[in-house]
Amino acid sequence: MTPSNCKECTQRVVTLNKAIPAWAASKSLAESPITVVDCFTGFDTTKDTGDGVHPNSSGNQKLASSWFKPLVKVIQG
């Protein structure tokens, strides 16, 4: 994301995130479906991490919020 020692890391994350939906679709099976969850949109590496990478309390809350509905959907089947 935005560690102080890697200026190109943010763009690498953006590029990877753009590739994930197509990759997931190509690997997803009816008996083993893959759900893609966007945890990057709305995540602020200045406010939501302590070091530009690892989430702090605010970041953890945003990640949990991103995953909650998709997990409930899978658990409830």
Please tell me about this protein's structure.
With 77 residues, this protein is mainly alpha-helical. It has one domain. It has two helices and no strands. The model has no long low-confidence stretch (mean pLDDT 95).
Q: Which whole number gives the mean pLDDT?
A: 95
Largest sheet: none
Q: Number of DSSP helices?
A: 2
CA-to-CA gap between the ends? Answer: 33 Å
Q: What is the strand tally? A: 0
SSE order, one letter for each helix or strand: HH
- Assess the beta-strand content as a share of residues: under 5%
The helix content is: 40-55%
Q: Indicate how many domains the architecture comprises.
A: 1
> How large, in whole angstroms, is the Cα Rg?
14 Å
Q: Based on Cα principal axes, name the global outline.
A: flat
Low-confidence region ranges: none
Secondary structure class reads mainly alpha
